[in-house]
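Much of what follows relies on a compact textual record of a protein's fold. An example makes this concrete, so a full record is given next.
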Amino acid sequence: MAASTGFRVTETQPTPNPNALKFVLDRAISENPVSFFTAASANGHPLATRLFAIPGVTTLLLLNDFVTVNKSPEKAWGEITPQVKKVLASG
C-alpha cells in the first residue's frame, strides 16, 4: 500500500482484556474478520507484518473500521500505541 492510503486512528478503546486495545479507524480496513495469531500467519499481509514487527504485539484482529491489537503483558501500551498508530498511518 502507498503511504497515501494510510489509516487515521480516530479513537482507541479498551477491551475487557487489559492486554488488548481496539484502534478505531477513519474508514474500513477489512469487510470480513481477519485474525493473525502469529507473525508467521501474517505473511502476505504487509500491514499485519509491519504491526507484528512492533515489539510486544502478539495477535491482531482486523474487521470493519478497527484493528484490535493484543500485546504481551510485560509491554506497556505507552510503548506500543504510538508505534501502532504510525504503522496504520503509513498504510
Remarks:
- The beta strands are 9-14, 20-25, 30-36, 57-64, 66-71.
- Helices lie at 46-52, 77-90.
- The chain has a mean pLDDT of 94.
- The chain has one domain: 3-90.
